[in-house]
Amino acid sequence: MFDSINEFQVWLIYLLPLASCLLIAAQYVIPAPIRPNPRSLSTLSILLMAGSFLLALQTLGVVMNAAEPGQMVGFGEHRWLSIAAGDIHLDVPIGIRLDGLTAVMLVVVTAVALLVQFYSQGYMAGDPGYPRYYAFLSLFTTSMLGLVLADNMLMLFMHWELVGLCSYLLIGFWFANPARPGYTSPAAAAKKAFIVTRAGDVGFLIAILLIWTRTHTFNILEIQEIAEAHRIPDHIITLFALGVFAGAAGKSAQFPLHTWLPDAMEGPTPVSALIHAATMVAAGVYLVARLFPVYEASEQAMDVVAIIGAITALVAATMGLVMRDLKRVLAYSTISQLGYMMLALGVGGLVAGIFHLMNHAFFKAMLFLGSGSVNHGTNTFDMHKMGGLRRYMPITFATFVIGSLSLAGIPPLSGFWSKDEILVDAWYENKLLFAAALTVAFMTAFYMFRAVFLTFFGEYRGGEPGGGHGGASAHGDESHDAHAQPDGGAHAPAHHAMPHESPLVMWLPLAILAVPSILSGLVNAPFFHHPFGDFILQSVPETLRHEPHPFNWGIAISSSVLAVLGIAFAALLYAGGRVRVPLSLLARPFYVLFSHKYFLDELYERAIVGGILYQGVWRLAAWFDATVVDGAVNGVARFTRGASAIMRRAQTGSEQSYGLMLTGGAALMVLFLFITALR
Amino acid sequence: MLSALIFLPAAGALVIALLPRERVALPRLVAVLFTLAAFVLSVVMVIGFKPEDEFQFINTIKWLTPDFGGFDLKYRVGVDGISISLVLLTTFLTLLAVLISWNISLRPKEYFAWILVLETGVLGVFTALDFVLFFLFWEVELVPMYALISIWGSGRRQYSAIKFVLYTIAGSSLMLVGILALGYSAGTFDIVELGRMGPLQDPIIPASAIFFLIMAAFLVKLPIVPFHTWLPDAHSDAPTAVSVLLAGVLLKMGGYGMIRLGVQILPEVAKDYATLFAFIAAVNVVYGAFITLRQRDLKRLIAYSSVSHMGYVLLGISALGKVGLTGATVQMFTHGTITGLLFVMVGLIYDRTHTRDIARMRGLARHWPFIGVAMTFAGFASLGLPALSGFIAELLVFLGTFEKYEVWTILAVTGVAFAAGYILWTIQRVMHGPPMAEWEALPDATRWWERVPVGALALVIIGVGVYPQVLIDLIEPSVQVVVERLG
Fold first, then answer.
1. What is the least distance, in Å, from the CA of B136 to any CA of chain A?
2. For residues A596, A598, A602 and A608, what is the CA-based torsion angle, rounded to 10 degrees?
3. Pair A135, A21: CB distance under 8 Å
4. What's the angle, vertex CA B361, arms to CA B355 and CA B362, rounded to 5?
5. Which of A41, A258, B286, B298 has the maximal Cβ count within 10 Å?
6. B166-191 pLDDT, tens digit each
7. Residues contacting B476, CB < 8 A, separation 6+
8. Residue A73 pairs with which residues in a beta bridge?
9. pTM score
10. Which residues of A touch B420 (CB under 8 A)?
C-alpha cells in the first residue's frame, strides 16, 4: 500500500472534508424538524476526516518509499482557466505538487484537524450552531489541504484566501455576543483578522501579477527554476519574494501585521488550536518554505525574512510575559514561535523551520486544547481566577506541563530539537540574530511556566460562575436572552462550584498529542542522522541541500540552562500562589508598554484607520464628492434654471413687444450690413 | 429569433396594459411568464451559439431606404460572444427582478409593464448592429426608468429620477453628435462595417473628438468619476427591483458601448488615450472605495461600491489586450449578479425594517439566519473571494493590465483591501452583535419569491467562480476580434 498512490487518492484527502462540509450545509435545506441529529453530523464529519488522515498517512508512506525519500511524485495538470492571447498563453491549471514537504504538511494538518474535531464533540456540545461549526471546520481543512497541495501560485492563493474566510467565520462563530470588558467582540475580531491579513495579501497578489508578467507561468516549480537560474533580473526576484512575504507575514502574524491573532482568541478554543496555532498561521511559513529556492536567490529577501522573524519572536515574547488571559499567553507564544520559524528560514534553515513548524503544531495544539479543557472546568481564561487546578484536572495538568516543557525547549522533548537547530543555524549566520533567539528561548520558558504556576498551582481562586465555556461568553450579559449566547446551551445553568476534569472526548486528544510532543523531535535527531532533514530537502534543488551544521554542545547546553533558569524564575515568582508581582520602578514602563501591546492597536485602529483615514482622507473624499462634484452638477442645473428665468421674460406673449423686437432686430441687421458694406 | 427575444417583453407589456384593472394579481403573472419565456429563449440561443463565428442570429429589416441622405438605415440586430453574455444577464436579472417585486401593491399594472419595456430597451442596446438603432434603444430605456423611480421610489425620488434622466440625456446628446459625425465621415452607420474599416479618411471633425463625443454617454453610464453622482441618488431612491436592474444591466450598457463602439470602431484613438483611461480607472476604484467607507445608508453604500467596481471594467478595457478585455466583460457579467444580489438583500432588509440607516440596525443575522447567510455570501462575493465569480473577473483584469500600467494596477489592487474593509464593517454593523428588540418580531425571508432569486444568483456566482471557463469560452473569440483590430 506504500508502493504507489494514484492521483485520485491524493485528491480524496482534499475532497473528503469538502464532502463533509457540503453534506452538513445541504441538510439545512431540509425542514428543521426532520433534520438529522447534530451528533450524527459530527460523527460523519469525524469519519470523513479520519479517512482523509489515513490517506495522508498513506501518501506520506509512498513519498518515504520513493527511491530518494521525499522525492517529488508527479501528476498531470488539469485545464481550469485558459486564455490564448497572441503568443502569451494565460493558463491556470489545477495540479498537485507532492513531495516531502507536502507529505509532512498533509499529515500534520489532517492529524490536528481530526483530533480537534474529536475534541469539539465535548467542547461544543449543546451549542445551537453545532452543525454549522463542523461545516466550517471541514471547509477550513479542505482549504488548508488545497493550499498545501497546490502546484501553482494561483491555486495556492485561492485556497490561501479561503482559509482566511474560514478563519473569519470561525473567529466570529459567536457573532451575536457582545464584547467582554477589556476585549473585542468576536465579530470585530473576525473582521480585524480578515482585513489585516488581506492587507498583506495585496502584496501577495501584486507579487503574483509581477511574476506572471515576467515569466508567464504560475507553476511553482518553474518559477523556482527561473529564479534559481537568475533568468529574470535580481530586483524582480527580490520584489516578488518580498511581496509574497507580505502575504506570509499577514497569515503568520509577523510583526507589524500580528495584531489580529490575539484578538482571534475570541473564537472557540478548538478553532484556536487548529487554525490559529497549528495550521493556518503556519501557512505563511509553509509558503516561504515552498518558495525557498526563490528566497535563496535573493539575499535581501532572506535578510528581511530573518529580521522580521527575529523582531516578531522578541516582541511577541515580551507581550506574552504580562498577559492575564491564558489563551492570550498562548497566542503571543504562537506569534513568537512563528517568528522563530521565519527566522530559521531567513538564515537558510529550511529544515529547522519546517521541523519546528511540525513540532510546534503538535505541542501548541495540545496546549490550546488544554486551555480549552481548563476553561471547560472553570468557565474562565483569566489566570487570576484559576490556581490549584492540578488537583482537579490531573490529565489536563500533565499534558499541559509536557507541552510547556517541550515549548520551553527542555531536552529531550520535541521542542528542544527543533529549537536547537534554529539556534545553530542562526549562530553560523549572524550572532545578533542568535542572541535574539536565545533571549526569546529564556522568555518562552518563563512565560509558559508563569502560566503553568498561575493555572495549576496554589489554591483555586474561584473561576467564573455560569455562562458556559466559550471564552467570549464567560461574562455573558444577563440582559440578553438565551439566544444571545449560542454557547450557553448545555452548560448555561450549571454553576461550577469546583472545577472538574473534562470528559474523555476532550482529554483523549490531549493524551494522544502528548506523544508527538515528547517524541516527534527524534525524527531529526543528530544521532539518527537527520532523516527528516533529508526528506524535506528533497523538495528543493540539489544545490540548496546543505549538510546540516554539526550538533553543538555549547549551544544545546546554554539554551537548556536558560530554559531551566526561566522556569526557575517563574517558579520563584509565581509558585507560591501569588498572582501579582510587585514591580520595581525600572520595570514599570516596560510593563505598561508590553501590556498595552506596544500601543499598536491604538496606532492602527484609532490613529490611522479611525483618525487619518476615516476622519481625514475618506471624509475629505466624501465631502469633495458631495460638495464639489455633485455641487457642480446641481450648479449646472441651477444655472440653467436661472438663465431660463431671465430668458423667458422675453416670451411675454404681447404682440407689441414681439413687434418691437422684430423691428429692432431688423434695424440691427440693416445697420450691420450697412457697416460691412462701408468697409 | 433574436428579434422575437427583444420584443417579447414589449409584447408582454402590451398584454399587461390590456388587462382589466380589477385583476391586480394578473399583471405579475403575465410579467413572470414573459420574462421567463425571454430567459428560456436566451438560454436556447446561448446553447445554439457558436463562439468561433462572429455576429449571429442576425435579423435585418430595411428601414428608411432608399436614399435617406445617402444612408441606408436599417433595423439590424445580432449577437457575438460579448453581447450574448450580457443578453443572458439581462433576461436572467429581469426575471428575478419581477419575482422580487411580487408583492408590489401600488399600481402593479403599470409597474410590471414598465419593467418589461425596460427589458426590451436594454436588449435592443446589447444587440443593435446599426448605430442609429442603437441610439434609439439607448433612449428607450429612459422612459421606464423615469417612471419607475419617480412613482415607485422612496425618499427624494422626483429629484433622483430627473437627475438620472437629465444626466443620461446630456451624455447621449453628445453621443448623438458623435454618431452623426462618425456616420457622415465613414459613410455608414452599420456597426459591423464600422468595426472593420480602416482609420477614418478626412473625418468632418477630428477622430478623437468623435471618440470622446461617443464615449461621453458611456462614461456617464458606467459611471466614471466625476460623472457618477447620479448613481447613488438613483439607487437609493429606486425600488429594489429597479436597483437590481440599474446596477445589474444598465451600467453594463456603458462598458459594452466602450468596447463595441469606442475601442472596436476607433482603435487608433483608443490607443492614444489608453493610459489616461487606466489612470481614471484606478482613481475610480480607490475614490469609489473611499466614499463607500463613509456611507451610512445601506443602499448608497452599495451604490458607491458599484462605482468602485466599475473602475475595474474601465481598467480592463484600457489595457487593450485580450486578457484585460475578457476580464472587463467577465466583470460586467459577474458584477451584475453580485451587486444584483446585494441589492436584493438590502431590499429584503428594507422591506422589514423600513430603514436603510446602518446605525439603526444590529444583530440581524440572529433573527434572520437566511438573510444573514445570504448577505454574508454576497459580501464575500463582492470583496472578491476566490471560488466566487468576482475574484475571477478582478484577477483577469489585473493580469491583463499589470504589464502595461504597473502603478495604476497596483493602485487598483489596493481596492481589494478597501473592499474587505467596507463589506466586513457593514456586515458587522448590520448583521452581528446582540440583536435589537425593535426588529425581533419581524420574520426571516421565507417566501418562495424571496428565496428563489437569492438562490439562483448564488448558484451563478459559485458556478462562474468555480469553473469560469464556461463564461470565458463564450466571450473569448469575440474579444479576439476586437484585439485583432488593435493590431
1. 25
2. -170
3. yes
4. 165
5. A258
6. 999 999 999 999 999 998 888 888 89
7. A83, A84, B51, B81, B322, B326
8. A98
9. 0.91
10. 194-195, 198
